[in-house]
Amino acid sequence: QNLLDMMVTEEERLKERLLKSIALCQKELDTLCRELQLDPFEAEEESTILQTEKNLRTRMEAMLKQKRDRKQELKTLQEQDRDLCDILCTTPFCIDSNAVPSLEDLDRYRRHLASLTAQKEQRQEEFISSKRQIILLMEELDHTPDTSFEQDVVCEDEEAFCLSEDNIAALHNLLQQLGAQRSLNEAVCAELRSRIVALWERLQIPGEERESSA
């Protein structure tokens, strides 16, 4: 009888522990479902207390892992976002760093970063192409970079150049100005050559002397 009483007591204690564990797991699961923006978890009614407790713990561990994974991905995306924002001089993506992001939030964030990356590559190509043309024009015009922006453009460290929208616009404007200056110089040279030829004609300078003076 004593042995039976001890077994019954132990069973009742185990049942009590399982019921407490079930209550705690269910409470934690409710919190996780809200954080992960998932539907509430419903335990199977026909299961035994032992099986119910095991199912709840398994589900809770899976959801905790999902929470950690989402938070880790958010951290990784934010690091990429900061790097791109530094290069493009834009504001970071608006998202609550303390909350657990939804799958839709993470998907929007990934697509946003993909767009920024494409924008960065496009502006990088524009910068490199414009920089080459600017350097050639400066050499042709014997122009020394005299402003801080011009010095930044011709600097060897291309990664240090801020690819902001304003900087790209200023880059195109500088290229246009240098191109206009070259066109003006060419027009002036053409005018001077024309006047020299006119003077040669009036002075009846022989062709040999003209060639030696050219």
From TrEMBL:
One cellular component term from this protein's GO annotations in UniProt: cytoplasm
Tree of life domain: Eukaryota
Pfam families noted in UniProt: MAP65_ASE1
Name of the featured protein: PRC1 regulator
Source species: Psophia crepitans (common trumpeter)
A Gene Ontology BP annotation from the UniProt entry: mitotic spindle midzone assembly
A GO MF label: microtubule binding
